[in-house]
């Protein structure tokens, strides 16, 4: 029983990162309407930024969080202007291919620059654990989880209270045909895409401490984000958090109870996803 | 029906590949035949994906169909011989497709893609865990026809491409084209116009998966070895859709052009640039989409699907 | 003669909303029936139920005596029940001719290619679309879109045609032509049930009118009779609909 609860706890803590990245994807998907296969690469970039700053300048990852947010936002904005905007009017499949090409480019650029080895960011507090009764909570996972929640809460406030946030939701609800874009909508798209990238970037910093930074980690997260968004339902931003929890939980349960390991974790998640998608479709009939 | 698909070009393609082993290739022969083989197989796979995409079903399960065919043929060949094994493997893929297709009839767009991906991942895990598949160590596969004919795998691959091309052309030139196009552009409208959408979707998925399964079976007989990560590869499933988008969607010529271009490009880049060749590959994909939105076929003139 | 389409006590609920409640009506052979009512009365839901894109929670639908309540849309089309959509949905990447060809070829079982092509020519002529036959359906004007919608439904050789507000957005002259076209279609042997908001069109075309309000039938009869019905007036004017 204790093991189960501890496992659930571990899963919960991990879900924060998933929720951050997946929410970013949901934003770019819902507001800009683009299927971005390169989304996870922003996470990868955030992770490496954290590593580089730590390894070469001794910058604590806590500081890198903010830097990664800004840097990823900037890069995301540039990517939007240069690459995404031109293809918004093109068929969806073209958009997918473009972002896929971008993902390949970024991932392999990272491989070229950093090699395939994983790089861990190990600040002094990395191994600290807190105990809560019979349970152990890693300080870093706990911090990451709480921080993710805080960021998502801020985002929620932004979307419901600020003018730009409301504009974003309006655009998401009623996406105009490209070509009818006003300047206001253009700004909203840029902001949304940049924000999506920033969320992923921040998650990347967290990941670099909790796990590692690696060139291939981006695509894995892209995939998981898509699965989470599909599980939550397109357009259902609030559903992303519970869906992230389901993924993180499934992974934690499988890795604890099914030491068959490799591949099984993902398979269980995908099985759940498959059943959920099919079940929902047949129910709606 | 009007003449779609630039038949002469297609014929030239096929002729070229049919004759490739007999051309004077010098020291490049082994390499070029290898590249040629993979062009044949992955182009066939791409065509099989396009065939399904024409109904609006964006499949990420073609890796699974490829793998089902590969393992099916690999496991059965010692018992029943090369050709029957290939057919049975393909049928296994077809059966999988019917199950997936039936269950996902009401899923569209991203949801369908995710469900098909999930399907593929689950199957890969099964291949990893089931006792008779050789698990992560892999499955050795016998060469075709007992290894007596060195070009056997190549020409089997060619036959698969031939079949894929024929199916694609048939779908393009028969009333089936309209049924598929209507289904893709609006299922509600298609149904109200009398199109039996369920049949169209399932048939397309079945045919596409059978071709993918054949390709998988031949693949195993060439590489002489199968592993779950290779046979049920997501990268291959993605390549199956990258090629048609790059070359020109919903056509026969598009995947053919795209397949030749991309597969040879990848091999050439790998040879010349080695480290980091994929960076260039990714850049090329981006540039083509930005400047050739209709894919390579768009360069040849307007095409409708 | 006889009832070619019958709706028997059909109900449909969406989440909290009762869209249709025990609605019964029928269409006589050779008749043009109008279904009118304020916004939200359930007219489009009725049409979706008739064409098979939705299933009723209860009740039955009969087509030429045959129970089609659970048949999918394509099967109903094969039997002869055709439909034109309100929000025009052309198949944008196909030409006008190809759009019609889908209907002509697949609207009935076992239609041969030559037959289908010949019929498409007829329909193009009938609906005045010949000059736009090779244009992509995604590039048409609104008027042409509406003609296409009608033409496509015709291409499936219906015995009963369901029309959903096909006059909306047309200028008076265009509406006149459309009315004449609908009459020609009826004279060719097709029974018609149409939803409409524009009263002049209803008065000009309808043999009979059925009025829906909040998902229920509140009146039925000729246009004159229905126009004087107190309940109908209240439904339209009393709530400022």
UniProtKB/TrEMBL annotation, chain A:
Where does the protein principally reside?
membrane
Where is it located? Cell membrane
* Pfam families for the chain: BPD_transp_2
Q: Which domain of life is it from?
A: Bacteria
Nucleotide-binding is among the record's keywords: no
Membrane topology designation: Multi-pass membrane protein
Q: Which UniProt keywords apply?
A: Amino-acid transport, Cell membrane, Membrane, Transmembrane, Transmembrane helix, Transport
Q: Which residues cross the membrane?
A: 12-35, 42-59, 65-84, 96-115, 135-159, 188-213, 225-250, 262-282
**Which InterPro entries does this entry report, sorted A to Z?**
ABC_transp_permease, BCAA_transport_permease
Q: Which PANTHER family match?
A: AMINO ACID ABC TRANSPORTER PERMEASE PROTEIN, BRANCHED-CHAIN AMINO ACID TRANSPORT SYSTEM PERMEASE PROTEIN LIVH
Write out the similarity annotation: Belongs to the binding-protein-dependent transport system permease family. LivHM subfamily.
This protein's name = Branched-chain amino acid ABC transporter permease
Organism ancestry: Bacteria, Thermotogati, Deinococcota, Deinococci, Thermales
Automatic annotation (TrEMBL), chain C:
Q: Which Gene3D superfamilies match?
A: P-loop containing nucleotide triphosphate hydrolases
Short name of any one Pfam family annotated for the protein:
ABC_tran
Q: Name one GO molecular function term.
A: ATP hydrolysis activity
Cellular component terms, GO, for this chain's entry? plasma membrane
Question: Highest taxon of the source?
Answer: Bacteria
CDD domains according to UniProt: ABC_Mj1267_LivG_branched (cd03219)
A single Gene Ontology biological process assigned to it is: L-isoleucine import across plasma membrane
Keywords associated with the record: ATP-binding, Nucleotide-binding, Transport
Domain annotation ABC transporter: ranges: 5-239
PANTHER family in the record? AMINO ACID ABC TRANSPORTER ATP-BINDING PROTEIN (PTHR45772:SF7), CONSERVED COMPONENT OF ABC TRANSPORTER FOR NATURAL AMINO ACIDS-RELATED (PTHR45772)
Q: What is this protein called?
A: ABC transporter ATP-binding protein
User: Can you name the source organism?
Assistant: Thermus scotoductus
Q: Recite the lineage of the species.
A: Bacteria, Thermotogati, Deinococcota, Deinococci, Thermales
């Amino acid at each position: 029983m204790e093991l189960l609860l501890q496992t659930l706890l571990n899963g919960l803590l991990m879900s924060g990162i998933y929720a951050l990245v997946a929410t970013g994807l949901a934003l770019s998907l819902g507001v800009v309407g683009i299927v971005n296969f390169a989304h996870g690469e922003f996470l990868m970039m955030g992770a490496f930024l954290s590593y580089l700053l730590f390894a070469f300048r001794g910058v604590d990852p806590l500081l890198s969080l903010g830097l990664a947010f800004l840097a990823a936002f900037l890069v995301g904005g540039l990517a939007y202007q240069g690459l995404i905007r031109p293809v918004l009017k093109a068929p969806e499949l073209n958009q997918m291919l473009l972002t896929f090409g971008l993902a390949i480019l970024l991932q392999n650029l990272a491989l070229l620059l950093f090699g395939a080895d994983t790089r861990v960011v190990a600040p002094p507090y990395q191994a600290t654990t807190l105990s809560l009764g019979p349970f152990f909570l890693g300080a870093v996972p706990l911090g990451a989880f709480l921080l993710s929640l805080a960021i998502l809460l801020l985002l929620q406030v932004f979307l419901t209270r600020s003018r730009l946030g409301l504009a974003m939701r309006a655009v998401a609800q009623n996406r105009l045909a490209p070509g009818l874009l006003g300047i206001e909508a253009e700004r909203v798209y840029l902001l949304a895409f940049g924000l999506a990238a920033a969320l992923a970037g921040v998650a990347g910093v967290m990941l670099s401490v909790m796990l590692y930074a690696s060139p291939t980690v981006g695509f894995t997260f892209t995939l998981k984000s898509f699965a989470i968004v599909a599980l939550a339902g397109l357009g259902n931003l609030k559903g992303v958090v519970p869906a992230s929890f389901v993924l993180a939980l499934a992974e934690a349960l499988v890795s604890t109870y099914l030491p068959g390991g490799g591949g099984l974790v993902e398979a269980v998640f995908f099985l759940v996803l498959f059943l959920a998608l099919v079940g929902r479709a047949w129910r709606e009939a | 029906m009007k003449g779609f698909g630039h038949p002469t070009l297609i014929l030239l393609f096929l002729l070229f590949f049919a004759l490739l082993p007999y051309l004077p290739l010098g020291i490049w022969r082994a390499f070029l035949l290898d590249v040629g083989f993979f062009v044949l197989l992955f182009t066939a796979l791409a065509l099989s994906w396009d065939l399904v995409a024409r109904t609006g079903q964006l499949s990420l399960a073609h890796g699974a169909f490829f793998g089902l065919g590969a393992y099916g043929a690999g496991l059965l060949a010692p018992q029943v011989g090369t050709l029957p094994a290939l057919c049975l493997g393909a049928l296994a893929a077809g059966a999988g497709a019917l199950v997936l297709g039936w269950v996902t009839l009401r899923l569209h767009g991203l949801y369908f893609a995710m469900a098909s991906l999930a399907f593929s991942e689950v199957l890969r895990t099964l291949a990893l865990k089931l006792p008779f598949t050789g698990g992560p160590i892999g499955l050795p596969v016998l060469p075709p026809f007992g290894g007596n004919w060195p070009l056997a795998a190549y020409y089997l691959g060619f036959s698969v491409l031939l079949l894929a091309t024929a199916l694609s052309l048939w779908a393009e030139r028969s009333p089936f084209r309209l049924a598929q196009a209507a289904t893709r552009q609006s299922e509600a409208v298609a149904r109200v116009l009398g199109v039996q959408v369920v049949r169209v979707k399932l048939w397309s998925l079945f045919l596409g998966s059978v071709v993918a399964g054949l390709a998988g079976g031949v693949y195993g007989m060439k590489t002489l070895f199968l592993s779950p990560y290779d046979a049920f590869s997501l990268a291959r499933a993605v390549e199956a859709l990258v090629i048609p988008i790059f070359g020109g969607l919903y056509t026969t010529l598009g995947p053919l052009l795209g397949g030749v271009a991309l597969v040879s490009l990848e091999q050439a880049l790998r040879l010349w640039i080695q480290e980091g060749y994929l960076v260039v590959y990714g850049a090329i994909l981006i540039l083509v989409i930005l400047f050739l939105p209709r894919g390579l076929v768009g360069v040849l003139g307007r095409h409708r699907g | 003669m006889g009832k070619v389409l019958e709706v028997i006590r059909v109900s449909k609920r969406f989440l909290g909303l009762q869209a249709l409640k025990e609605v019964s009506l029928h269409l006589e052979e050779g008749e043009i029936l109008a279904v009118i009512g304020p916004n939200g009365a359930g007219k489009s839901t009725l049409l979706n139920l008739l064409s098979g894109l939705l299933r009723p929670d209860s009740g039955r639908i009969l087509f030429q005596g045959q129970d089609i309540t659970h048949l999918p849309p394509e099967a109903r089309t094969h039997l002869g029940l055709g439909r034109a959509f309100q929000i025009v949905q052309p198949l944008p990447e196909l030409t006008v001719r190809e759009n019609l060809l889908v209907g002509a070829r697949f609207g009935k079982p076992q239609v041969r290619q030559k037959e289908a092509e010949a019929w498409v020519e007829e329909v193009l002529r009938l609906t005045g679309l010949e000059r736009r036959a090779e244009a992509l359906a995604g590039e048409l004007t609104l008027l042409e879109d509406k003609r296409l919608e009608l033409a496509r439904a015709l291409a499936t050789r219906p015995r009963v045609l369901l029309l959903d507000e096909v006059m909306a957005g047309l200028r008076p002259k265009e509406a006149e032509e459309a009315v004449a076209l609908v009459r020609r279609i009826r004279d060719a042997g097709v029974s018609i049930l149409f939803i409409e908001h524009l009263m002049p069109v209803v008065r000009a075309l309808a043999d009979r009118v059925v009025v829906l309000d909040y998902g229920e039938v509140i009146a039925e009869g000729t246009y004159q009779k229905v126009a004087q019905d107190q309940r109908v007036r209240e439904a339209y004017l009393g709530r400022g609909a």
